[in-house]
Structures are given as structure tokens and as C-alpha cells.
């Protein structure tokens, strides 16, 4: 038995060393350039091999080597932060499809907390959204299977399935004495990235629900269409990024570039490697993924000076925070709403083979003025508690093992992120409680209280271009 474990250990140490060297993991070598066995934690690898040997010899049922090693890799990544992960063949494919705006599922963003799946946010216009699944819900059962003990990836796989098939979610919700049951029909989720309309003559409304491959081009088409439909010269624009979970970085740069001067700094990143240090400018080479015609070249000339307000809330994350931060720092737009989510870390997809990859956090995002978005978010110029937040909404600083802001302690960062959050658990009167149980208010509708305020403030800006940002 001991010989088996020893031999297994030597083989595994060799395998792991080879993987680390091939991936050029500087973290293991602690910034050393000599990635040799001498720089690897041999004692820890020996302990790993002993555990591997014990499982192979003593576990109640036989376990395949591939499963053990895959789970070990997954454990390494999951233990880092909420966004690093191992992607098997199916997940890698889903990731690639998702950035193109169409994928299968229920339409919820989830994380793992205390062994249960916790809803970060339902995605707009999806089965989960229409059924009434809310941020902060704990999924305790999927069909007849308890979630406790599952990995997050296993739970996600179980919620996925063929379109038009049914799945039952049992949910524990704060304030409810009994679990809630939701019978959802899986669907091919087609997300309309850009929605637009004229609120009234001369005033345009554009909502971005997610940053996808064609978002920049769709935005340009929407702007040109709004200008052509308006019977009077365009006076102002509202850009709505509420509940936008983010998406592709180059699309965030494209959206920012539509409103900023050419070559203005949109965002920069900083990490341990040179590849992780980038400056992204409002220029075609930073948002066109392929060589081709610049879709922003046809925009009306005054789009870069048109008075505008950007709406955000606690569901605005990642790419949407990049856009809001860039427009705010360049004083191009007033940002209005509540403190954003605070997801300011860069995930790099590193393929391991033709079918698998790892998603690894490699850098932090910084706004043009040098503010770290991570675990803090964007603080609006005008704070308003009608930004459309759910009172149970999670933020990056609430997630277990979240990456620090890089500028202070995690506790201080969490306090800072919450300081200006006017929507945190303020829904206490009966009217708001009833509203919370109904279907969510549609952003951009006549019932959208924050939009109504934004339009009024935008008109003041148009009448008085030097209008100062202030609490309405």
C-alpha cells in the first residue's frame, strides 16, 4: 500500500509540475523565472499525492483518476475567488455561445454560499425573471435533488437542459416562513442587447441589457435610428445600465467610445504579468475584434457632446461599471442611481485543450482617474433609492473569497461599498413590500420612477448646460 502511494505520489508530482510549467503559473514560483521542481511546494504536493492514494485504495467505491484530478483542479480555482473556475467541454462551449447572445437555461446568475446556490440576479426577459425568482434567493432543491453537497458547476448543469423541458426549483427566501416552489420551462435564452426608444421629441432612451459581441454595432444602429425618427433636433439621451451584468470588454470600450472623444482612456487593468497590464482607449483597434469597417464612424457628430445621464444600480456589474466609470471620470455623463455591484476583476480564458479551459482572475479594472472598481463599484453623482434594486441584492463585497480592492482591507472595502448604497434594506413600508412581491418594474416603462426623475433632470441640464449634479 505504501509503495503504491509513493509511486502514485511521484507520478502526480511530475504531472502537476508539468502542468504548472506548461501554463507558466508564476503564482507557484512566486514571481521566479526558474519554473523548476525546486520552486514547487514539494511537501504540499506530497500531501496531495497521499490523499490521492488513500482515495484510490480506501474510498468506499472506485473513483476514476480523471475525476479526481479534474475535481482537484476545480477545487484549486474555486478556492481563489468567486469568478475563477475550471471549464469542462460543455461549460467552455456554453461560455463561447453566451457571448454571442444566445444560450440555453433558465436565465439566472448564481454563486455558491454555505453549500447552497444563491441567486445574484435573474437576467431580464428570461424564464426565471418572469417567474419571479429574485436576487438573494437560496436554491435548496433542483427537482427532487437537494443542492447541499453539490458543487456550483454540478448545480448549474442540473438546471440546464433541453429547451421546453421543465425543472422545479425549491427556494428559501428571506421573510418567507416556508420554501417557495417555482416550476420553470427551460428555454433558449436570446438576449436583446440594446433596446431603444424616443421618450418624447428630442429625448432618447437606450438600454443595454448585456455586453455581447454585436453590442457596439447594435448601439450605433439604435442611435442612428433614433436620430432619424426624431422630428426635432436631439436634445438629450439617457443610457440605462441597470441590472446589466456585464459581458465582453471590447463591447464596453465600444459603447464608451460612442460618447467619448477619440483616443480617450476608457479603462486600464493592472495585474502581476505584463499581459495583464493594459490601457484601453476609445479607438477602433480597441473595440473591433476583427478588421473591418468602424461601425461608430457613422454616428451623428453631436453624439459626443449631447447632454446625457447614465442610470445604474446594484445589478450593474463589470462591463457596465467600466462604461459608467469612464463616462463619469471624463465628465461626459451624470451617473444616477445606486452604488454598483463592484465586479472589477479581469478573467482570462486559458485553454487547456481543444475542449477545456480555465477561467482565471488575472487583473483588476481601474477607471481613467485611477479608481479601482473591485469590491467597491461606481458611486453615482446623484444617489437615488429608486434605482430598481432588490433589497436582497448581493454585491461583490458580499461574496465569499471576493478579491480585495487592492487599496485597503476587505472589511473597509465592504463598508465603503455599502456606505452610499441608499437601497440597502430600506423597503419596510407596506406599499414597498407589496411591490416587492409583484413582478419587477419594467425598466423604461411609464412606471419607472428613476427614469422619470432622470428625464426631469436631463431637461434641466438642457436648459442650463452648467447644471450641477445634486441630490434630487
From TrEMBL:
Residue ranges annotated for the PDZ domain, each copy included: 92-160
Gene Ontology CC entries for this record: outer membrane-bounded periplasmic space
Gene3D superfamilies in the cross-refs: 2-enoyl-CoA Hydratase, Chain A, domain 1 (3.90.226.10), 2.30.42.10, 3.30.750.44
Enzyme Commission number(s): 3.4.21.102
Record key words, sorted: Hydrolase, Protease, Serine protease
Enzyme class: hydrolase
Gene Ontology molecular function, alphabetical: serine-type endopeptidase activity
Region (Disordered) residue spans: 405-449
InterPro entries, per database record: ClpP/crotonase-like_dom_sf, CtpA/B_N, PDZ, PDZ_sf, Peptidase_S41A, Tail-specific_protease
Gene Ontology terms describing biological process: proteolysis; signal transduction
Basic and acidic residues biased stretches: 415-424, 431-440
Family: Belongs to the peptidase S41A family.
NCBIfam families linked: prc (TIGR00225)
Protein name (record): Carboxy-terminal-processing protease
Organism annotation: Nitrosomonas mobilis
Amino acid at each position: 500500500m505504501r509503495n503504491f502511494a509513493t509511486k502514485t505520489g511521484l507520478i502526480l508530482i511530475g504531472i502537476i509540475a508539468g502542468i504548472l510549467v506548461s501554463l507558466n503559473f508564476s503564482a507557484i514560483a512566486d514571481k521566479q523565472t526558474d519554473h523548476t521542481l525546486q520552486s514547487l511546494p514539494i511537501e504540499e504536493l506530497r500531501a496531495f499525492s497521499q490523499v490521492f492514494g488513500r482515495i484510490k485504495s480506501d474510498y468506499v467505491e472506485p473513483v476514476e483518476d480523471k475525476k479526481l484530478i479534474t475535481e482537484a483542479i476545480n477545487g484549486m480555482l474555486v478556492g481563489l475567488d468567486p469568478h475563477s473556475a475550471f471549464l469542462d467541454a460543455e461549460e467552455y462551449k456554453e461560455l463561447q455561445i453566451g457571448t454571442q447572445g444566445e444560450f440555453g437555461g433558465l436565465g439566472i446568475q448564481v454563486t455558491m454560499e454555505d453549500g447552497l446556490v444563491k441567486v445574484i440576479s435573474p437576467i431580464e426577459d428570461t424564464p426565471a425573471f418572469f417567474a419571479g425568482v429574485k436576487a438573494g434567493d437560496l436554491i435548496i432543491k433542483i427537482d427532487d435533488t437537494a443542492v447541499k453537497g453539490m458543487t456550483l458547476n454540478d448545480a448549474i448543469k442540473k438546471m440546464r437542459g433541453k429547451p421546453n423541458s421543465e425543472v422545479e426549483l425549491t427556494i428559501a427566501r428571506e421573510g418567507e416562513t416556508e420554501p417557495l416552489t417555482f416550476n420553470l420551462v427551460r428555454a433558449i435564452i436570446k438576449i436583446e442587447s440594446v433596446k431603444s426608444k424616443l421618450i418624447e421629441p428630442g429625448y432618447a432612451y437606450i438600454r443595454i441589457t448585456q455586453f455581447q459581441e454585436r453590442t457596439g454595432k447594435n448601439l450605433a444602429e439604435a442611435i442612428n435610428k433614433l436620430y432619424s425618427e426624431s422630428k426635432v433636433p436631439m436634445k438629450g439621451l439617457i443610457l440605462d445600465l441597470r441590472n446589466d451584468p456585464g459581458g465582453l470588454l471590447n463591447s464596453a470600450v465600444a459603447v464608451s467610445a460612442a460618447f467619448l472623444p477619440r483616443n480617450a482612456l476608457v479603462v486600464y487593468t493592472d495585474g502581476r504579468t505584463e499581459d495583464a497590464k493594459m490601457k484601453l482607449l476609445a479607438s477602433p483597434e480597441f473595440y473591433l475584434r476583427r478588421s473591418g469597417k468602424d461601425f461608430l464612424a457613422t454616428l451623428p457628430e453631436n453624439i459626443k457632446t449631447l447632454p446625457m445621464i447614465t442610470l445604474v444600480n446594484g445589478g450593474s456589474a463589470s462591463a457596465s461599471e467600466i462604461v459608467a466609470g469612464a463616462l463619469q471620470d471624463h465628465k461626459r455623463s451624470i451617473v444616477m442611481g445606486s452604488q454598483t455591484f463592484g465586479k472589477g476583476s479581469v478573467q482570462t480564458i486559458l485553454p487547456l485543450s481543444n475542449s477545456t479551459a480555465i477561467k482565471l482572475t488575472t487583473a483588476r479594472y481601474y477607471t481613467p482617474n485611477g479608481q479601482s472598481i473591485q469590491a467597491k463599484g461606481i458611486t453615482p453623482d446623484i444617489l437615488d433609492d429608486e434605482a430598481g434594486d432588490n433589497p436582497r441584492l448581493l454585491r461583490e463585497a458580499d461574496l465569499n473569497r471576493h478579491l480585495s480592492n487592492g487599496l485597503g482591507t476587505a472589511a473597509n472595502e465592504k463598508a465603503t461599498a455599502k456606505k452610499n448604497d441608499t437601497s440597502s434594506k430600506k423597503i419596510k413600508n407596506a406599499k414597498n413590500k407589496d411591490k416587492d412581491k409583484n413582478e419587477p418594474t419594467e425598466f423604461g416603462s411609464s412606471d419607472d420612477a428613476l427614469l422619470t426623475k432622470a428625464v426631469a433632470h436631463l431637461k434641466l441640464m438642457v436648459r442650463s448646460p452648467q447644471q450641477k449634479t445634486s441630490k434630487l
